């Protein structure tokens, strides 16, 4: 990470992050969403490593990957810092007169932060700088609320300009940072499904303004509903793209920065605190750093299975390749994967590079390990009978 002047809190955007995020954002089929998604993601991936370099316990800093999946609609990213939460709000270089925070980061209890940072991003020169911060309490009590675009704002002159004050406030934790907010309703399952179906309409370009906030906020406050919203949006994207199947890829390199796309979970999140499945998937892996995530796949009414993907990197300085393994596990309560299930590795042109089929009473199937340099794209397909799900990946 290169900084122009840490005293002024300027950071260069690494070319690799710019390239990866730009490529990712261009896959978004709605043009109006692309730049917003790029701005948010490039800000998060540049600031997160820098924050980890500034503290004694970098393992206590991590991004909120679930919310980051809505970067195309909602400005901002959440970073957990010990017991505190920082909300990063990026703005273009010529638009920094105020801090403008979407209502989601202020009035959804599960999303609220302690500190809100205004970050100027110059996409031409590829740098960003910190322009001040404030607290949730200050925004809630003194900020101007715009009911049309659902934002709270403060002029930059009201922000605390010195970043060292943030470190001190976070360490001492003596002053209150949180304002009072009203609770959001708990939605019934039928109402949740109705709202999700409504938002699935391809003509809804800005779902955050489609519903009254109490309904929208209640949806986002439930992680299960948030994941369903993302999945249904991807289905509508497939429709917009003319059924080409072009979807947002999973960025494996970002997994090593604790950033995960919606739907990918840990073993413990799926199997509980004492998972007994897929432990052998990690043993014997030659990589020094290994990350495993799992994702339920619904193959129509035929079956539900779990796709497990493991990404590993070696510490050798001359080897930047990532090793990948893909495996399919049976659904919860099932002992075997469905007989005849196909797991295949595809190139971006659809060429089958590997394929394996489940036999009777196979408790998992997996592809052979393969290694890819940064920027490599591939697909993993899981299919049975007339049902198939294809996941896109980029290293």
List the helices and strands and how they pair.
Elements: E1 3-5, E2 10-12, H1 15-26, H2 31-54, E3 61-63, H3 65-68, E4 77-81, E5 84-92, E6 98-102, H4 104-107, E7 115-122, E8 127-135, H5 136-142, E9 144-146, E10 151-155, H6 163-172, H7 189-199, H8 213-220, H9 223-240, E11 250-251, H10 252-255, H11 267-271, E12 289-299, E13 303-313, E14 322-330, E15 342-346, E16 352-357, E17 365-366, E18 370-372, E19 377-384, E20 387-394
Parallel strand pairs: 5-7, 11-20
Antiparallel strand pairs: 1-2, 2-8, 3-4, 4-5, 6-10, 7-8, 9-10, 12-13, 13-14, 14-17, 14-18, 15-16, 15-19, 19-20
Give the CA-CA distance, first to last residue: 20 Å
The class by helix and strand makeup works out as: alpha+beta
CATH class of the largest domain: Alpha Beta
Give the strand line-up of the largest sheet: 1-2-8-7-5-4-3
The CATH architecture assignment of the largest domain turns out to be 3-Layer(aba) Sandwich
Task: Give me the CATH fold name of the largest domain.
Answer: PvuII Endonuclease, Chain A
What oligomeric state best describes the polypeptide chains here?
single chain
Mean pLDDT: 80
Q: What low-confidence regions span 5 or more consecutive residues with pLDDT below 50?
A: 1-7, 239-246
From the spread of the alpha carbons, the general shape counts as globular
**Rg, nearest Å:** 22 Å
- Percent helix: 25-40%
**Main β-sheet description:** 7 strands, mixed
